[in-house]
Amino acid sequence: MAKLPNPEELSKIDYAPPSKGWMDTPTEFKPGMFCHGSKPKSLETLEFPNPREWRPADVDWKLPENWKQILLEGIADRLKKYRSFRLFMDICVRCGACADKCHFFIGTGDPKNMPVLRAELIRSVYRKEFTIAGKIFGKMAGARELTVDVLKEWWYYFFQCTECRRCSVFCPYGIDQAEITIIGRELLNLLGLNIEWIAGPAANCYMKGNHLGLEPHTIVGNLEYILDDIETVTGKKIKPTFNRKGAEILFVTPSGDLFADPGTYTAMGYLMLFEELGLDYTWSTYASEGGNFGFFTTNELAKRLNSKIYAEAKRLGVKYIIGGECGHMWRVIHQYMDTWNGPADFLEVPKSPITGTVFENAKASKMIHIAEFTADLMKNGKLKLDPSRNDHLKVTWHDSCNTARGMGILEEPRYVLKNVVNHFHEMPEDTIREKTFCCGSGSGLNASEDMDLRMKGGFPRANAVKFVHDHYGVNMLANICAIDRASLPPLMDYWVPGVKVAGLHELVANALIMKGEKERTTDLRGEPLPGKEQKEESA
Amino acid sequence: MAMVDVKGKSIEVDEDGFLANLDDWSMDVANYFAEVEGIDMSDQHWEVVNFLREYYKQYQIAPMIKILVKEIGKKLGPDKGNTKYLYELYPGGPAKQACKIAGLPKPTGCV
């Protein structure tokens, strides 16, 4: 594995463009900037084409003989099927408004990471094969031949885009670069050219219900350890149910919350909140993944993986679904699910059993985000809270790309945060809300072999955190996304040491005063609570 | 796939140097990986590796750190049941280094 340069070296970014034009600048596969290729076993599980051993750095990618025909037919099919793709191939005027908005461009200085140029990689082939001007005038009309080198360039740069859509906020035409990357990755998957960090979890999810491949007894086992920790902190023994038919609500969260810190603290938060409410809900060991790495592969696979959540809701006979703190899950639910697997008319429009609030916004999907659910509880004064239990934390809020730009969850988590912490500081205006900067590892790029890429792509986010860390002493970066919880800790350790990462509901549960709980002396992580240390010693 | 030589036997490893086929694991293979990682295997090191292998057999995944910490605490005494101790044994991280020596694959997804 390539050795990661230190922050000082990595922050020397060269913005001088190469001497030759982009079409004449060959793609160099730099170690640390790309992920391992998909393994045959994962592709076989998913019944995807061309499963074989291959390495992205190798010259021979073991492509099928008619690879070009497959790709061109793939483009033609998608131009017919997706109006968005057809439109985005034609309408860009190359104004450059997007150019410096991409975290990967800011962090690398590589012009092919300008969203406009990333799109040109595929548009140039579209022009050559599908437009009269391109066919006649060739390079003069921005057209070029599809070659193996072009294919490799696509692979390198479509896996250097996190589909975060920050660029589309600034595009006067509203071109959605994520849609272009999504189609680019779909085309690559026709030839078996995925990355293993996406194909592996997607295959796990297809076979076992979640990205990690946690089997039912593992899910229950992991939760038991998490419940033990809750008992240590609160003195309360919680007994959640699994796969319970007739429960009012099905709860689905990313499997990362049931496996790795700090996600496990977020899971403690869900469990404690639901216990306090006496909520009639169940976990499922089958629909055990909120995330959808199929969405980073092909639309068809995303649809397949999404369907299991609704199939399980139907099987269990629940009224509706609450979804946990996941990012891209919500772009899928909010913007694609109804077309793919809807209408979910066997479910009811979500209605909070505690406040009576009807979530009209979830009329189609029948699934609400836990931040909406909790904000509504607080708005109606249904929770007893002691925000001073979070006084050892100075918190800032990272808007996850998909929840912020994908479904507009901007106010709810802030409202919740302000109810549970006393020290909250916003990062600079241009780096939050709709203009939030990506963690740099989204869309399945949170592997370990591409750390250079992740630290470069996460640089703008980290830089904004550093600002509030330096100015206000911020030491906690809160969010509602499992990829964030996995990828931001190493990003902070690298760029802004001293800042930790937490899911929203960890902070909620720290502050939540539960009926019959013992006096808390630690937070959910077992760290001593400010002002309570004395009691801990005498206990 | 790369091959490495362990006491005259050819063993397949993946891109990150992890064991490709779990069935290829042996004490020799573990000692080989430990040497690559610069770990001098003590009884305590073996406790961790043996626990990881036992756990994997039952659950088909490496245990979450929380579980590893608690179970090692039960085996080696409560003063050893903490993340700090595990990092002293495996400075490269128990999840990465100890799993590699135990022949377990790395967990994938939002982790």
Key traits:
heterodimer, A: 539 residues, 2 domains, 45% helix, globular, B: 111 residues, mainly alpha, Dissimilatory Siroheme-sulfite Reductase, Chain: A, domain 1, Arc Repressor Mutant, subunit A, 5 helices, 2 strands, 50% helix
Walk me through the structure.
- The complex is a heterodimer of chains A (about 550) and B (about 110).
- Chain A has helices spanning about 5-10, 40-45, 65-80, 85-90, 105-110, 115-130, 130-135, 150-160, 165-170, 175-190, 195-210, 215-235, 265-275, 300-315, 330-335, 335-340, 370-380, 400-405, 410-420, 450-455, 460-470, 480-495, 505-510, 535-539, and strands spanning about 250, 280-285, 320-325, 365-370, 395, 475-480, 500-505.
- Chain A has two domains: about 5-30 and about 50-195, Orthogonal Bundle (Fumarate Reductase Iron-sulfur Protein, Chain B, domain 2), CATH 1.10.1060; about 200-510, no CATH class.
- Chain A has 24 helices and seven strands.
- In chain A, about 45% of the residues lie in helices and about 5% in strands.
- Chain A starts with 6 loop residues before the first helix and ends with a helix.
- In chain A, strand 1 (about 250), helix 13 (about 265-275) and strand 2 (about 280-285) form a beta-alpha-beta unit.
- Chain A is mainly alpha-helical.
- In chain A, the strands form two sheets. A four-stranded parallel β-sheet of chain A has the order 2-1-3-4.
- The longest helix of chain A has 19 residues, at about 215-235.
- Chain B folds into two domains: about 1-35, Dissimilatory Siroheme-sulfite Reductase, Chain: A, domain 1, CATH 3.30.1420; about 45-100, Orthogonal Bundle (Arc Repressor Mutant, subunit A), CATH 1.10.10.
- In chain B, strand 1 and strand 2 form a beta hairpin.
- In chain B, about 50% of the residues lie in helices and about 10% in strands.
- Chain B has about 110 residues and is mainly α.
- In chain B, strands 1-2 form a two-stranded antiparallel sheet.
- Chain B is globular.
- Chain B has helices spanning about 25-35, 45-60, 65-75, 85-90, 95-100, and strands at about 1-5, 10-15.
- The model of chain B has no long low-confidence stretch (mean pLDDT about 90).
- At the A-B interface, helix 11, helix 12 and helix 22 of A face helix 3 of B.
